[in-house]
Design a protein that fits this description.
- It is built from no helices and eight strands.
- By secondary structure, the chain is an all-beta fold.
- It has a domain of 84 residues.
- The strands form four sheets. It has a two-stranded antiparallel sheet with strand order 1-2. A two-stranded antiparallel sheet has the order 3-4. A two-stranded antiparallel ribbon has the order 5-8.
- The relative contact order is 0.14.
Length: 135
């Protein structure tokens, strides 16, 4: 056994590391992945001036309403999870020096994902190559 080293981005993000184990003939024996929350340990900034305007960060757990009665939140509100279709509502506070009348547009940037958990989908039956199927 040995160590695996990788350079991660130097900015807050979620990085996915996928690993697989191959037999000598190249066939895949096992595969798995892990998500890494990359951050510097400081609390989230309130706002940041960008080239195109402002970035107003918020945590997924800081919602004001949701269609799910009991969503699952990650540590410190860094993740929001729920089963089935639904919606989440947030309120984003503008900076005092940025009056609402001056806002001409907004762009929401987020990462969303889905998992199959107990209802695994038969990827092979759907015509996907076996090497793209995570057990």
């Amino acid at each position: 056994m040995g160590n695996i080293e990788a350079r991660l981005p130097e900015e807050p993000c979620l990085a996915t590391v996928a690993l697989w184990l191959e037999e000598g003939d190249g066939s895949v024996r096992a595969r798995n992945y892990v998500n890494l929350d990359v951050h510097d340990g400081r609390s989230m900034a309130h706002a940041e001036r960008t080239r195109d305007g402002y970035a107003l960060p918020f945590r997924p757990g800081d919602f004001i309403d949701a269609s799910w009665p009991t969503p699952v939140l990650g540590p410190k509100g860094q993740k929001f999870g729920a089963s089935g279709a639904g919606w989440v509502e947030y309120v984003v506070t503008l900076l005092e020096e940025l009056p609402a009348a001056a806002v001409i547009g907004m762009r929401l940037v987020f990462e969303a994902g889905a998992r199959t958990a107990s209802s695994r989908i038969g990827w092979k039956r759907l015509g996907q190559p076996a090497d793209r199927c995570y057990p």
